[in-house]
Design goal:
two-stranded antiparallel ribbon; globular; 6 helices; mainly alpha
Length: 110
């Protein structure tokens, strides 16, 4: 599974589950490119999940939990993205893990 952001721009960045998802260079590149093209992170599908989590965790704690791929945090994100009655989807779990770098950028906007 592969992720891509800023598609169709000179800032397009791609990565996969085989990459180090918490690589500071990847996260910085996503953040820098987002600043260059003035991305509104509030419109990102993960923004409300991060906002909710920050009501219960400090920014530093949340960053650490995301970097550690804390199962409880990933489960909360999953529940905010889908109807919890629908159950667990391995594809959704991979999707959430894949977009950890984006979530770390969003946390930094708070």
């Amino acid at each position: 599974m592969k992720a891509s952001i800023y598609n169709g721009t000179k800032y397009e960045i791609s990565w996969s589950l085989d990459d180090t998802l918490t690589d500071p260079t990847l996260i910085r590149n996503i953040e820098d490119a987002g600043n260059e093209i003035d991305i509104d992170w509030k419109k990102n599908e993960f923004y409300s999940s991060i906002e909710l989590l920050l009501e219960h965790y400090s920014k530093i704690d949340l960053i650490e939990k995301l970097q550690d791929e804390d199962p409880e945090i990933l489960e909360i994100i999953r529940l905010t993205l889908e109807n919890p009655i629908a159950g667990n989807s391995p594809v959704l779990e991979d999707f959430i893990r894949l977009y950890l770098p984006v979530m770390l950028v969003i946390v930094n906007t708070f």
